[in-house]
Specification:
CATH topology of chain A: Rossmann fold
Number of helices of chain B: 12
Radius of gyration of chain B: 19 Å
CATH architecture of chain A: 3-Layer(aba) Sandwich
Strand order of the largest sheet of chain A: 2-1-3-4-8-7
Structural class of chain A: alpha/beta
Number of domains of chain B: 2
Strand content of chain A: 5-15%
CATH superfamily of the largest domain in chain B: Thiamin diphosphate (ThDP)-binding fold, Pyr/PP domains
Radius of gyration of chain A: 20 Å
Distance between the termini of chain A: 53 Å
Structural class of chain B: alpha/beta
Helix content of chain B: 25-40%
Strand content of chain B: 15-25%
Number of strands of chain A: 8
Distance between the termini of chain B: 42 Å
Oligomer: heterodimer
CATH topology of the largest domain in chain B: Rossmann fold
CATH superfamily of chain A: Thiamin diphosphate (ThDP)-binding fold, Pyr/PP domains
Shape of chain B: globular
Strand order of the largest sheet of chain B: 3-2-4-5-7-6-12
Order of helices and strands of chain B: EHEHEHEHHEHEHEEEEHEEHEHEHH
Helix content of chain A: 40-55%
CATH architecture of the largest domain in chain B: 3-Layer(aba) Sandwich
């Protein structure tokens, strides 16, 4: 795994750089506070269905997506609130979607697992484990077909690498030299099954060797390490049109979904507490403070702003109208010309 | 009008559409260098090059998904399955992906893609290679399902499918590739969703599609020798179903037989019967009968296989029954 020894940030600081660092902190805080609110809304019955929270993995979405251009493509699994926010879908549009409202980013027809914004190249949360990985290969194929220089990034959990779709998609991406980045968010558990109980190979990045594909494993709680690794993968895809398997080792602080336990038969309370000590947001905030980029007080102000933004999204979603009944039958097929 | 095989009519449609629209590409097993397992793609690699005629590994789930992803981002893929039997490995990409993305995204995502290849039984290929899948896919909102019977319809409907903005499941008849028929030259686009009267008659309606169209035409000949005029209605498209054409014919004949290669349970014919009984129950002079493949996995033995398949004699017998002649 890539471990990074960081030089003090202040050595290189410019006002623009400092603003960027603060923006990443704000994005991670937004995801954290948003997810806390979503969990609360779920418990109150305001959000239905399944709801898979991203708490603990914020540095992965922010670290990777901040390396992408607006015209790049993203597909995700069903644990995708964080990526949607990091890509720039508004908290209002995401929260309204979780509430099933017409103002949601999928007009209330997708829900938590199916967030979309085509204008941002955000091609969905997908609910079948691994099923969306070939879509990314297809988007990368389309980029090559058009001789473009975009990249297609795919987020999935470590449990997805045991399914056939992963293998088939990565094989073709390597065979055809496609600009795809397969981001495996290894949060250690596929629902309640630990990696070691599901995969014969514990180092997920090693799987890339099956396809003669570039690989990297990186500490997912370290924002800059994630960014550095993603930056290398993006450069490889854009300049050389080659795919990468990027394993980001992170941890799911919450249960698999809102209806699942945080710890229990499958992992201990002590393990969760130990992992929570490496909170990616706290680690990044501490670095910014230690290096003099931000003060503790400024972090608190930023957090308060983010909480207000989330509260606003909740109020917005709460007040927003449901889709009209006739929406039931729209969007099944293309509108008739 | 030139006479073409069904295979060459499909080839013409692909060639014309690829020449017309550079977003259209063909992908699948053996479609390029090998010229197609059934030679539908003969010559296309030479004409359009390897970026537009793409040989894949044997990876149905994978390349079906590649097609969906490419379609989501603006291309118009034609994905060839060597047979629809193998496409079961890819059904998640069709049902959970292609069919639902427009809806789940609130209308933001279009998936203009054609999945095509041969379906139905050939000869003694046994259980895993002899099955009709129309009803599987027709069950799914978001998919269109087309199954042409003649070279002219094969060409016109494939062109329409490629131009369609929705995912189209295009099921060719494995036993039809060598059949010949007149195909109009030039720009012929046959609308999806319209049935076609292949033979007019006033005594009984034979509803059919794909390979059973030929079966029903043969049955109609035999019935004519007995003084019975059968109308052969080729559905051509299973979804959206041309209900108006079915009702119009049955309102005229008052008797109906539905023939299909697939299994009887929850088959295409079950839907046809339901449409008829709901809309024009009082027009019927007899219960609608169905002639289907036997409700078993296809046996290898040729005598047993023959028993399992739809044939003209079975259609004739059913027609005589709805006419109360037996």
């Amino acid at each position: 795994m890539t471990t990074t020894v960081h030089a003090p940030l202040a050595d290189a600081v410019t006002p623009e750089q400092a603003a960027t660092w603060k923006r990443w902190l704000r994005q991670m805080l937004l995801i954290r506070r948003f997810e806390e609110k979503a969990g609360e809304a779920y418990s109150l019955g305001r959000i239905g269905g399944f709801c898979h929270l991203y708490i603990g993995q914020e540095a992965v979405a922010v670290g990777t997506i901040s390396c992408l251009r607006p015209d790049d493509h993203i597909t995700c699994s069903y644990r995708e609130h964080g990526q949607a926010l990091a890509r720039g879908i508004s908290a209002r549009a995401v929260m309204a979607e979780l509430f099933g409202k017409a103002a949601g980013c999928s007009r209330g027809k997708g829900g938590s697992m199916h967030l979309f914004d085509a204008s941002l190249g955000f091609w969905g949360g997908h609910g079948i484990v691994g099923g969306h990985i070939p879509l990314t290969t297809g988007m990368a194929f389309a980029i090559k077909y058009r001789k473009g220089d975009q990249v297609a990034a795919c987020f999935f959990g470590e449990a997805a690498v045991n399914n056939g779709a992963f293998h088939e998609a990565l094989n073709m991406a390597a065979l055809w030299k496609l600009p795809a980045i397969y981001i495996c968010e290894n949060n250690r558990y596929g629902m309640g099954t630990a990696l070691e109980r599901a995969s014969a190979v514990y180092d997920i990045s090693e799987r890339a060797q099956s396809y003669d594909m570039a690989k990297e494993a990186v500490d997912g709680q370290d924002l800059l390490a994630v960014r550095d690794a993603m930056g290398r993968a993006v450069a490889r895809a854009r300049a050389e049109h080659l795919p990468t398997l990027l394993e980001v080792r992170t941890y799911r602080f919450m249960g698999h979904s809102m209806s699942d336990p945080i710890h229990g038969h499958y992992r201990t309370r002590e393990e969760v507490e130990e992992q929570r000590a490496r909170d990616p947001i706290a680690l990044w905030a501490q670095r910014l403070v230690a290096d003099g980029i931000l003060t503790d007080g400024e972090v608190k102000v930023m957090d308060a702003e983010v909480v207000a933004e989330v509260e606003d999204s909740y109020a917005f979603a709460d007040a927003a109208p449901d889709p009209e009944p006739d929406e039931l039958y729209t969007d099944v097929y293309a509108p008739r010309a | 009008m030139p006479t073409l095989t069904y295979r060459d009519a499909l080839n013409q449609a692909l060639r014309e559409e690829m020449a017309r629209d550079d977003r259209v590409f063909l992908m699948g097993e053996e479609v390029g260098l090998y010229q197609g397992a059934y030679k539908v793609s003969r010559g296309l690699l030479d004409e359009f090059g390897p970026m537009r005629v793409v040989d894949t590994p044997i990876t149905e789930l994978g390349f079906a998904g590649v097609g969906v992803g490419a379609a989501m981002t603006g291309l118009r893929p034609v994905i060839e399955f060597m047979t629809w039997n193998f496409a079961l490995l890819a059904i998640d990409q069709l049902v959970n992906g292609a069919a639902k993305l427009r809806y789940m995204s609130g209308g933001q995502v279009a998936v203009p893609i054609v999945f095509r290849g041969p379906g139905g039984a050939a000869l003694q290929l046994a259980a895993q290679h002899s099955q009709a899948f129309e009803s599987y896919y027709a069950h799914v909102p978001g998919l269109k399902v087309v199954a042409p019977a003649t070279p002219a319809d094969a060409k016109g409907l494939l062109k329409a499918a490629i131009r369609d903005d929705d995912p189209v499941v295009f099921i060719e008849g494995e036993m039809l590739y060598n059949t010949k028929g007149e195909v109009p030259e030039g720009e012929v686009v046959t609308p999806i969703g319209r049935a076609d009267v292949k033979r007019a008659g006033g005594d009984v309606t034979l509803v059919c599609h794909s390979k059973t169209v030929g079966t029903c035409l043969r049955a109609a000949e035999q019935l004519a020798e007995q003084g019975i005029q059968a109308e052969v209605l080729d559905l051509r498209t299973i979804r959206p179903l041309d209900v108006a054409a079915i009702l119009a014919s049955v309102e005229k004949t008052h008797r109906c037989v539905v023939a299909e290669e697939g299994w009887p349970f929850a088959g295409v014919g079950a839907q046809v019967v339901d449409e008829i009984q709901r809309a024009i129950f009082d027009e019927l002079d007899a219960p609608v009968l169905r002639v289907t493949g036997a409700d078993v996995p296809m046996p290898y033995n040729r005598h047993l296989e023959k028993l399992a398949k739809v044939d003209a004699a079975k259609v004739v017998a059913a027609a005589r029954k709805v006419l109360y002649l037996e």
